[in-house]
Request: fold
Amino acid sequence: MKKRMPVEWTRLDNAAKIFPPNTNEKDTKVFRFACELKEDVDRDILQVALDNTMLLFPMYNVIIRRGIFWYYFEHTELKPEVTEESELPCSALYIPNRKNLLFRVTYYKKRINLEIYHALADGTGALAFLKTLVYYYITIKHKEDFGDKLPKLDYDASFTQKMDDSFLRNYDGDKRLDRIRLGKAYHIQGRRSIDNRLRVIEGCMSARQVLELAHKYDTTLTVYLTALFIKAIYMDMPARARKLPVVLSIPVNLRNYFPSVTARNFFAAINIGYDFGKNTDKLEDIISSVKESFTRELTSDKLKRHINKLSALEHNTFMRVVPLVIKDYVLRFASYLADRGVTAALSNIGRVTVTEELAPYINLFDCFTSVRRPQACMLSFNDNLVVSFASPFTSTDIQKNFFRMLSEAGVDITISSNTKLQ
Reply:
């Protein structure tokens, strides 16, 4: 009788636990990072680059399984295959009872796309994977340009560091479950496409131009664009709805506040709101309020509380013995209550850097995510700042408001979309 090999499995980190029970066809919890090169992608070389990348990220070679009490990752021998892009952006990766990898690599013309299920990693972890993939692709495709001296790979974390559950490591043992605040925010309404097609609108502009505008208001690029997004939403709000605040959910990379280079999830979300019923609609007043909110929320103490809140669920004695089928209902209801207090979301990945020798081969990076409400994602590479709006709705008025305000302020913007603008 053939001896059965032991199965390797890993717990989901604390941020990941919310995703499986809240995944559905309207919100697949999949996000995409893309790298646009200066030449068309060679599929065969990209496959070799992916094979090399997987040697450094074996923790991504997993499927999700349901346990009695929690979901968990199980190692699989499935091999990721590069394909030309053919499906809708951010199509489902996690499908209950189906054994498939939780990420995909596709290409289209000059673009290399990485789509990943959020339970597997956050934006920082996924970007590290994509940058490694691009590193191998360029150094293989243009090996004659580098000779015997290859550029240095700028993400050299060990396997243990990549696998680190940074929530667990920074959890101080507080097992109390915080009450969910039942605040009510303005909710954007709209008509959805029949096939749940994600509408993506991407604006590419000069990071320097936008930064100069932010400095005129004595603030940062993130605060400026957050305020601009809030103003764009307000401009499309019905008059009767303006008594409700506009609240943006903003993911925060906790690696910037606590030591970690994990390739898994390590983020928290803060809410930044503005009440037009109590304040003016002047952009400078919105910026001032947003700036104050960021200062108040982005402290080590506040973010530590976010870590404890996420970790307490797993370590709470009662929740540990509750069967998964009941936990699923609890987590869905908790997500529903949290969503009541959120209008839209904005994610700032920040400045993307690569090894100096690779930069001449790359045009830009961008990202966006599957959504049940409009979300903006932004990142920059060299002087290319890309702001990508993803929305489940067919209307594009909010996006037009946002880009029009930037354009009227003197920013040159190139707009592209996966569907016809309305």
Remarks:
- The chain is about 30% helix and 25% strand.
- Residues 1-7 have pLDDT under 50 and may be disordered.
